[in-house]
Structures are given as C-alpha cells and as structure tokens.
Write the structure tokens for this entry.
Amino acid sequence: MKSFKIVLILTFLLISCNVWATGLKVGIARKSITPDHPLWMNGYSDRDKPYEGISHDLWAKALVIEDSPNSLVIIVTLDLLGLNREIPEVVADKVIQKYGITRSQLFLNSSHTHSAPVIWPCLSMAFDFNNADQKVVSQYSYELTGDIMEVIDSAMSKRVPMNVSSGHGVAGFAANRRDREIKPVDHDVLAVKIATPDGKVQAVVCGYACHNTTLTGANKMINGDYAGYAMIELEKAYPGATALFIMGCGADADPSPRETIEFAEQNGKELAEAVEKVLGSEMHPVRPPIRTAYTSVDLEFPPLKVEKYQAEIMSDNRVVQNRAKLMLEAYNKGWDVTRFPYPVQAIRFNNDLTILGMSGEVVVDYDLKMKKEYPDENLFVAGYCNEVICYIPSKRILDEGGYEINGSMAYYGHPGPFAGNVEDLVTGALHRVMKEVGAKPSKK
C-alpha cells in the first residue's frame, strides 16, 4: 500500500509539473555562413553587381535527434537559395564515413532566400562571371561544405536528453502567384519545440510553404528574407534557443505584401507569432523510434531539339543564349540531357510526426496531395531539400504552362519542360519512402 501511494505521488508530481520524457537525445549547433567579402547574390538576374551590405547574418544550423546510438537523424537548415548536387553528395559521403549512418539519415534544407550568395552552378545561366568573380563564387561554395560538416560535428557532440513536441498553426501571408483568389496555397505552419526535461526551450523548428521573396532584385543587402526575420523574432522570444526554418512546397506562392525590408520583417513577425501561439498551447509529444528512407527517380525531358537551340544561341537574352550554348555543347559531346536523378526522403518519428523531403522548387500541389493521401499522419512536406536543381511542377502546372515549366528552365540550364509523366514519377517515389517508414495512405 505504501509503494502504491509513492507511485501516485510521483505520478501527480510529473503531471502537475508537465514533465515528460520522449526518449530522445538532441544536439543543437549553429555557424554563421555570412560572407566576409562582397559576393554576387542569387535569385534575380537583373542584379548587376555584388551585395552592398548585410542586414543580418546567414546561418547553417543543425539538429541531431537520436533515439539510440545506432538510430538518429541529422537535420541541417541553411539560409541560402539552394544547394547544388555537389555539396550534399560530398557532405553525405563525409558524414556516412565518419558516423556510420545511411544517406536517409541526413536531411538538408535551404530557406530559398533570394538575398544570399550564389551557390554555383545554381541558376548559373543568369551569370557571365569573369575569372575573378568565378573564383570568389566557387570558393564560397567549396568552403560551405566545411561549414556544414563543422555544424554537424558540433551538434553530434552535444546530444543530451530532450523533450520534443510538435503542433501546427496558421500564417496567412502566402499567396499563389498565379491567381491568389482561386489557386491553391497552404497556410499551415509546422512548429516543433525542443526543450530540456525541466521545460526550458532550446530549439524551435518552424516550417512554412512560401517563396522567400519578400525582397526583389532591387535589394542589395544580404539577409534571410521573411524566414530570417522570423528566426530572429523566435530567438528573441526564447532567449538562448536556436530557431530553424524548413521551407515547404512554396514554389508557386509569394509573400504578400512584398518588396521592402519592412514587409520582410512584417511577414517574419507574423510567422513567428504563429509559432509562438502553438508553443504556448498543448503540443503533442514526438517519440521514438526514428525511421528514415531515401530514394531517387529519373525525371524525364522530351528529346532535345537541336533546331530550337541553334535559334536560341542567336538570342540577345543572356540567359536564353547561355542555356542554348550548354544544350548544344551537351548534344555535340553526346551527353544525355533527357533525364536526371531526383531524390526524395522521409523522416518519421513513431506515429507522431513525419517530414517528407523533396528536392527542387516544389509546387504546392504535392504538399496538398500527400496530406490528402495520408490524413492520419502529422505530415509536413518540405521542398528545397538537398539540391535545388529546378522547379518540380505538377500536371496542373504543366497543363497551365508559364514560368515554372518554361522560362525558369533556362535559368537552371535544363531543356524543359518536363515530360508529362513528371507528377506520376515523383508521386511514386514519395509513396515508396512513405511506405518504407511505415506511413499508410488512406484506404479511400
């Protein structure tokens, strides 16, 4: 009877203090990736010189979440437009060799701010660098690999027991840029809290699906756009904590309003307030086990039409001409430009939280489709993971035409548009990784 009373008292104390354990260890680290000398900025082709100043720092931030020494996931967020293929592959090789993990356990996500340095050759068709500029741009990209490894190593060394919980909120500033009245958008905000057993917040993860383009090409100041300002606000609200941003499938959504620093701050504050509201309410524990999956599928382009690029190489448009030069060189050297491997991955924490990671600039249709097909999952669908190689359109976007499937491909150096089976191929890959981590679609 005495033992029973002791158990009751301990249970009451745990409940009354809101102390619970999720069985996870978490390591948190950050490193500035703000350039220390002028570099060209990415995202807009009308910029005619390197950046002129720094509004706030850019960051590489890492979370290592572990449920056992042999089971963990490494999440790295970057205040950048996107990564090339080279950097994720080099980092993955180093991490796999050093820590004995698999490729599926490394998750890289870029915020897609258009106010960060060029990561060459992302959108390389927009630039004609001279020798000196090419050296500077390439050096920053190469050093970034070391920066990412440094922040991963730091997070790996700091793993301690933490409570992890998640919830969802709403922020309304994302607007479909094709038609904000009738085209789809997702205002869902993912919020994840990582706290010590006594409740002190150590990290906050925020996810949202909106292009990080409050600021236009007229901006010459380095900053993280609305996502960067949101993280600043969250770190003010939770002193000592690290805030991380995961970009969702926001390829066809723009912030509204936009164009000024003040609007970037306003949008960031709205996002931060949505997260704070979730963190101030009842959240759901995120528990082990951790399951991860990674796969790749070849996306297809129609056969290359030489005549098209023979005409375009005569264009007065720098971007169009640069793409034509690349395509004709590929044709003459026998390179296959009709397909490229497209990676996707999934991270699932028990039945509590699932994150799908999609490469490239992913339109919102994939986000909404996967949430509909997996209604029982606490699901967030991230775009801009690993490499950002081009837009990833749905069949709806292909049918509508426009910048995402035509004009943008010239900037990225792809023939474009995709073949009509792109949505089927991508969706099939998503289903495979979801099945591998144990997620089940609706039976309807």
Notes: The chain is about 35% helix and 25% strand. The first helix runs from residue 2 to 16.
